[in-house]
């Protein structure tokens, strides 16, 4: 990502001649001291001590509930729950299983501990941070007390270590939110860059793709460089033919977010909409065109023909084919006339003016979006989640990470909530699909969250 704004050539150098790189990769560091446990955050690395006999005796003697239970076990339980003292009603349902063994209150083979030790017992069972299920299983092997499962879940949920770990992190697809389609041609455009790639018969390494959201008209330009100035020049050429749009949708590439690009769009009166990070679905129309371009170049490579020529022929066929949803071709929708083609030459019906009923087109598009939205939400079981400003989350990072690394970012706080994306405190915009809530405030948990791996 950081090198996208540069043009460079790669040259292979054998290892025996590439002395600097070989030295940097293999030479051991001198003088470093091995890191010890003291260098870690003490808040996150506290070893628990076991429960001593004296601690157990003191906690038991000071627990009135256990004393009442012992009396009830010896003298017998009342016939009705309402006749039982309020502090021991939680034991009513299992009263037939309770008994005394060496002054210990037991439920079957498991000990009923004093309430003062409940938290410490849970912490000891959770010492290995094995998650809720295994913590419960470990605790149940020796102990039982009312609300034990709920207390375990609460404590594990608020555990700092577990919040740091990926194993407790989960994301869920947010409900699909259809892209707003403009009501007139050339009003909203999508822009993207395909590459670097090999374009047969050309020095071009990139294909610039520009798509009209209303008509689906596509413009492409094969280029060798994709600096901001190159992109601006291509946009100027396109605008000189079709006019200046109201909105331009792009991803977060450096060419689109530079100050030069922002100045050009501002002077031109164009609203710049950037999609969420690593969320190509937000610009799905352009991504589908990108796929068409790549497939076309693959076919051109196999047939050994010019890549640019193959793209031109593909786009001409695409532009003159009626859209499956609207029934109107991109050419007719943008130009307002029938295209003259080999199938439909001008001496037949090509070139004749056509009145495009925009309202009917929009109705068909909206109905198709509604059906797809319903299908998508049902297939993936999407569920709305209310994210709020100030909430702490971790973001699922794209791609693979190092084996010892995390798949999620460091904790970040939400600063703005939009329809299907959120803006974080660092100014970045992320899709809600990538968010994973954390239940604790990392500012109160030491410095153990580390740096974002991105």
Automatic annotation (TrEMBL):
Family annotation (SUPFAM superfamilies): Ribonuclease H-like (SSF53098)
Domain of life: Eukaryota
Protein's recorded name: Gypsy retrotransposon integrase-like protein 1
Single GO biological process annotation from the record: DNA integration
Annotated GO MF terms: nucleic acid binding
Annotated source species: Pleurodeles waltl (Iberian ribbed newt)
Entries under Pfam families matching the protein: Integrase_H2C2, rve
Domain (Integrase catalytic): residue spans on this chain: 181-338
Signal peptide positions (record): none
């Amino acid at each position: 990502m950081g090198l996208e704004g540069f043009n460079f050539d790669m040259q292979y150098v054998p290892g025996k001649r590439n002395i600097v790189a070989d030295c940097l990769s293999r030479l051991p560091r001198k003088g470093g001291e091995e890191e010890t446990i003291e260098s870690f955050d003490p808040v996150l690395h506290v070893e628990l001590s076991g429960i001593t006999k004296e601690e157990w005796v003191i906690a038991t003697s000071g627990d009135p509930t256990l004393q009442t239970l012992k009396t009830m076990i010896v003298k017998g339980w009342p016939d009705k729950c309402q006749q039982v003292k309020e502090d021991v009603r939680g034991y009513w349902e299992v009263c037939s299983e309770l008994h005394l063994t060496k002054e210990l209150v037991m439920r079957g083979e498991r000990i009923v501990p004093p309430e003062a030790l409940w938290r410490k017992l849970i912490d000891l069972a959770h010492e290995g941070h094995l998650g809720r299920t295994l913590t419960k299983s470990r605790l149940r092997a020796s102990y039982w007390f009312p609300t034990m499962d709920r207390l375990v879940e609460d404590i594990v949920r608020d555990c700092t270590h577990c919040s740091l770990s990926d194993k407790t992190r989960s994301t869920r697809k947010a409900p699909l939110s259809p892209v707003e389609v403009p009501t007139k041609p050339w009003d909203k455009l999508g822009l993207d860059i395909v590459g670097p790639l090999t374009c047969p018969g050309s020095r071009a390494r990139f294909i610039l793709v520009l798509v009209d959201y209303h008509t689906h008209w596509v413009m492409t330009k094969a280029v060798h460089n994709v600096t901001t100035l190159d992109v601006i020049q291509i946009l100027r050429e396109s605008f000189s033919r079709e006019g200046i749009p109201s909105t331009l949708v792009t991803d977060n590439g450096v060419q689109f977010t530079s100050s030069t690009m922002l100045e050009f769009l501002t002077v031109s009166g164009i609203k710049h909409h950037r999609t969420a990070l690593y969320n190509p679905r937000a610009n799905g129309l352009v991504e589908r065109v990108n796929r068409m371009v790549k497939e076309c170049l693959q076919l051109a490579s196999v047939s050994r023909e010019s890549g640019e020529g193959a793209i031109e022929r593909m786009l001409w066929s695409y532009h003159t084919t009626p859209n499956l949803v609207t029934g109107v071709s991109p050419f007719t929708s943008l130009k307002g006339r029938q295209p003259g083609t080999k199938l439909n030459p001008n001496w037949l019906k090509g070139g004749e003016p056509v009145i495009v009923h925009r309202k009917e087109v929009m109705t068909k598009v909206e109905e198709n979006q509604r059906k797809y939205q319903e299908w998508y939400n049902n297939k993936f079981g999407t569920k709305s989640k209310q994210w709020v400003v100030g909430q702490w989350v971790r973001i699922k990072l794209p791609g693979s990470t190092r084996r010892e690394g995390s798949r999620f970012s460091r904790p970040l706080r939400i600063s703005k909530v939009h329809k299907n994306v959120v803006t974080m405190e660092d100014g970045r915009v992320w899709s809600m699909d990538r968010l994973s809530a954390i239940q604790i405030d990392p500012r109160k948990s030491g410095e153990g969250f580390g740096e974002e791996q991105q």
